[in-house]
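Lecture notes, unit on binding sites. The following record was shown on slide 14. It pairs a sequence with magnesium ion.
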Amino acid sequence: MIKIHKKISIFGSTGSIGSNSLEVIDNLSKNGYDIDVVYLTTNSRIDLLAAQIKKYSPRGILILDKKAFSDFNLNYNFKELEILSGCEGLLELSRRTDYDLLINALVGFSGLMPTVEALKSGKDVAIANKESLVVAGKIINELTSKNGTNLFPIDSEHSAILQCLIGEKKQSVSRVILTASGGPLYNKSAEEIKNTSVENALAHPNWKMGQKITIDSATMMNKGLEIIEAKWLFDLNTNQIDVLVHPQSIIHSMVEFIDGSLKAQLGMPDMKIPIQYSLTYPDRVFSNYSTIDFKKLKPLTFEEPDLDKFKCLRIAYDVLKEGGTFPVVMNAANEVAVDLFLKRKINFHEISEIIETQLNKHTNKQEYNLADIVQIDTITRNNILNEPINTYK
Ligand code: NAD
Ligand code: MG
């Protein structure tokens, strides 16, 4: 049997990646691996969390939301279960040393400090929370080298790139090509996209994911976040990262080498495959997840992304080139704008406008620390929320 981490915690266990991670643990258990699920966390989905507690008997749980925390205490009584709440509790669990791998399946900036604290306390991190890397990739890389810890990507494109890079030298790589499904709006006209409804933006053709990343796919900011994620994970120059729209989501990404050869990683669109790989890397363990039947596949097609229709991807390319603290502003503005869109307070096209406005206001800094990142994130959010929303109309 191959050696894999035995004690695992999942932050954001009730979300899309979190639930898929528990299914992966089920598969590993079926294959004879004895894995302890040590801590599970949710924002507020206490019903699903309770079902997970019954099945996996974790040592402790965290419920971020205070009201959900008191509802949980009123409605459930699990023996010998430690119950924590709030951001401080989340940080405390991140620092504990009674588990050896954290699956960070939190959404947004809230995933940053748990990534940092888990790495500082010597644990490995399987990372779905791409926003951590977007805002603090440089600091996270410094931490992994200082502490000798590992970061295993869960994002399907980055898992694909990791698999293509095995056995290759850094100087052999000419570029990486991240594939993008194009999201639910790819074939719509610029006019239709401009005022698309929340329902249409949430109707992703290939992947069932949390709401924030689904809207990010519709604006293509998801690919924008991923080009920055790729830069930090694989130490790439900005001109080595390309995006290609591939609506079938069968090729998860590719690496082109200096001799003209190209490697791609393929699979059905099922996040359990990259999640499992993040836990078994560089080995593999048997699974029954769906495999490709080439005879039944639709033709695989490829297109240049349309940066006029998908302004968020153009913005992210500029931000990737500029570097510094711009990614922090872009990420914070995007999170607030997506939330406002989901609450039907702004129109779809205003997401990119809000991000641009905030970037224009910001003086970029190439030297920054973690405290600067937290401060810039807060300032950006406050800037947007303190302005009357109809300034964007
Ligand atoms: P989701 O919304 O389904 O789940 C998020 C989880 O985090 C939930 O358990 C929720 O309770 C918890 N949570 C939400 N807000 C929180 C907060 N402020 N503090 C603490 N916990 C909080 O999201 P998801 O789709 O699973 O995505 C998680 C991360 O994985 C994101 O960074 C996303 O970009 C990335 N990702 C997701 C997919 C996918 O298929 N869903 C694929 C690639 C990468
Ligand atoms: Mg992805």
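Take-home: The pocket of magnesium ion (ligand 2) is lined by residues 155-157, 226 (CB under 6 Å).
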